[in-house]
Hints:
mainly alpha, 171 residues, 5 helices
Amino acid sequence: MASGRSQSAALMLLFLNLLLYFIVIVIASWVVNHAIEKTHETASVLSTPARIFPMWFPMGNLATGFFIIFSLLAGVVGIATSFTGVGNVLRWDRPSLSAAVGSSLLSWALTLLAMGFACKEIDISWAGGTLRTLEVVTIILSATQFVCTGAIHVAFEEVAPPKWPPGGLYR
């Protein structure tokens, strides 16, 4: 892969992830706002342990709270990673691409955590349209973030291939 092609592929994936992370933040923020407004009236009829459980949401199932919190966290970290990743890829030198690879891996790890809770929520029971949209976008985003991390890593290897000492590692 030529240097220009890997740079343009990484930039395209970073902009796609920026858009998808923005969608995740918007939907997760709406769900958190809805939960804050509706929890008092809905949770008042529940027994005491469920009333004081801070991760209970008036929609979805018991995995919804964890899924929403981790998808919101992954969205915020992903937006920051995408913004800084665009700058790092445009700079196109070894230290910048190294930082882009590291932050992309962190963002992918958080997105995988949110995707795991999305899969658990799907496994437990059916969710409404908004939650189903967030689940699908999170699952798609985990795949695109993986490809983006790989593209940035390939670009990093192109810019500065590893230099092994003559004669191998152990001399």
